[in-house]
Amino acid sequence: MESPEEAKLQCFLQWLEVNGVQLRGCKIKYSDSCKGFGIFSASSVPDGILLVVPLHLAITAMRVLQDPLCGPACSALRDEGLLDDRLLIILFLTVERLRKNSLWKPYLDMLPNTFTNSLWFSDNELLELRGTPLYRATELQKKNLLALFNEKVKKLADKLLIDDGQLESDVTFSDFLWANSVFWSRAQNIPLPHLYAFPDTQENQDATISSNSGENGRSDSHVSKPQTFEDGTQVAGQQGETVWVEGIVPGIDFCNHDCKALATWEVDGMGSMTGVSCSMYLFSAGQNPFEKETEISISYGNKGNEELLYLYGFVMKNNPDDYLMVNYPVDAIQNVAFSEQKEQLLEAQKAELRCLLPRSLLDHGFFPPSITQGEKDDKCKAAPASSYSWSGHRKSPSYLNTLVFPDDFLTALRTIAMKENELYQVVSLLEELVGPEGKRQPSEAEVRAAVWEVCGDSGGLQLLVDLLNIKLMDLEESSGTEESDVELLKKAQGSEVPEDCKRSDSNGTQPLGRNIWASIVYRLGQKQLTRLFLKEAEHALQLALSEGN
Ligand SMILES: C[S@@+](CC[C@H](N)C(=O)[O-])C[C@H]1O[C@@H](n2cnc3c(N)ncnc32)[C@H](O)[C@@H]1O
């Protein structure tokens, strides 16, 4: 007998077909309990085009504004600036899921009911993230979403459902959280042809989204294609140009992620690639034909585990795109000496108080991890270091090309760490430059050069070492050392933990839940990266001091 899951899938496949979706060389299939559904190869296709989805099926802000139920109420609020495009889509998903006769039902039924991103963690699971940026981001986002729900969403969603004919409605925060997670885990930035985003012909208004729930498999109600909006969606362009619009494309959104993607997607405006104008299609990036039932993954972008866990609810072990975020707390500047002058200098230099340090930067540092030449060539190059010229008293440091830290951030740290006498020297150098009347403002590069000439690197690097030490202490005080995390992962077993993390022998150890496992993988990465970048910063500091920088 057909399982309920299989029945839902069949209903969804019919719905896709009725709405013009073509599964040419692939099928949608349950992957595993961790990934959920995915797209798999089914037959070989000579042109590599595996799946074609007409874009009238995309759930975008335009689509919502066209919706007979949500459109009128939302347009007014959007015009008043009370709803942005993302919230429009999230509101639409919240309401559609609760409507009795939604045209999107076969699609919505296929979506997961719960998620594993950090917003869905239990209190205990969340504790595993203490000391990480993700812990703070999750707490803050939960608070913001709750406020948004109570202040705006609940009233509007309840009203829309009652307008739709429901006798009463009690939309909950969980309904909203569900829609929020659907949006963030499935929305794409879609490059729409301008003509499609702003159609002006009658013909463009005729196509429909159909529900296969109507008689004879045909829809008895229609949603027309997007029409013209005077104020545009996100980017206004001219005819023939591309308009980038965020939205969910049912079908394509069943692709799971892999850094080594087997496929990619594109928009076919004219239909020259697929025969379907204004469509999005999935095509194999290289290897074709695939072995039967190979999972066709795409890349969600170079995302570290922090972003993957926050948005998508999974992590990658040994993620090559992992990164560390380091910041100097904005509020702390008020407490440093000469904060006002330093803030002015920071602004003049367009200095950054935070930076992202991707793991790949380490390949070009003092202690590169052992990687093969091939891998080395694939990695991104470290940002070119600036070589300032001034009166030339300070020599260019020997480590200039081995320093892995972005100059925008080091500039900020140099400025914050400046001593009183250094500050006076910088000011007098800049006065010398612009003349006694100060007829012009010194340029960004000139201020940076002056600060470097006076201060060198050691003050900034010392501050960086301090920041990284504090970060490591926070992480370890909250959840133990790297070694203890490695030990915990070794002990992981049980069905919630991805296959490759289970322990084959079972000594009665408790299995780790999947969310806890993911938290440990993520925080272990943060500890490792902090330690490695700290080593780089300490070494650079030693060199700077010994070279008089
Ligand atoms: C765009 S959807 C892909 C379809 C999804 N698997 C489903 O069943 O609806 C993204 C979600 O798929 C899952 N996913 C995608 N790639 C994954 C991966 N490499 N490992 C684990 N889960 C993954 C995550 O739950 C993520 O939030």
Q: Compute the number of strand runs.
A: 13
Oligomer: single chain
CATH overall fold name of the largest domain: set domain protein methyltransferase, domain 1
Q: Bound compounds, please?
A: S-adenosylmethionine
SSE map:
Layout: H1 4-18, E1 22-23, E2 26-32, E3 36-41, E4 49-54, E5 59-60, H2 61-66, H3 70-79, H4 85-98, H5 105-108, H6 123-127, H7 133-163, H8 173-186, E6 188-193, H9 194-197, E7 208-209, E8 223-224, E9 242-248, E10 263-268, E11 279-284, H10 305-312, E12 323-327, H11 339-348, E13 354-358, H12 373-378, H13 407-416, H14 420-434, H15 444-455, H16 458-479, H17 482-491, H18 514-546
Antiparallel strand pairs: 1-4, 2-3, 4-11, 5-9, 6-9, 7-8, 10-11, 12-13
Helix pairs in contact: 4-7, 4-8, 11-13, 13-16, 14-15, 16-18, 17-18
The site of S-adenosylmethionine has 16 residues, from strand 3 and helix 8.
Concise description?
Residues 205-236 are annotated as: Disordered. The protein is an alpha+beta fold.
Structure description:
- The chain is an alpha+beta fold.
- The chain has two domains: 4-312, set domain protein methyltransferase, domain 1; 315-549, set domain protein methyltransferase, domain 2 (Alpha-Beta Complex).
- 42% of the residues lie in helices and 11% in strands.
- The protein has 18 helices and 13 strands.
- It has helices at 4-18, 61-66, 70-79, 85-98, 105-108, 123-127, 133-163, 173-186, 194-197, 305-312, 339-348, 373-378, 407-416, 420-434, 444-455, 458-479, 482-491, 514-546, and strands at residues 22-23, 26-32, 36-41, 49-54, 59-60, 188-193, 208-209, 223-224, 242-248, 263-268, 279-284, 323-327, 354-358.
- The strands form five sheets. A four-stranded antiparallel beta sheet has the order 1-4-11-10, with no helix packed on it. The protein has a three-stranded antiparallel beta sheet with strand order 5-9-6.
- α4 packs across α7 (133-163) and α11 (339-348) runs antiparallel to α13.
- The chain starts with a helix and ends with a helix.
- The structure holds S-adenosylmethionine.
- S-adenosylmethionine is lined by residues 34-38, 112, 185-186, 253-254, 256-258, 312-314.
- Residues 24-301 form the SET domain.
- This is OLC1v1039055C2.
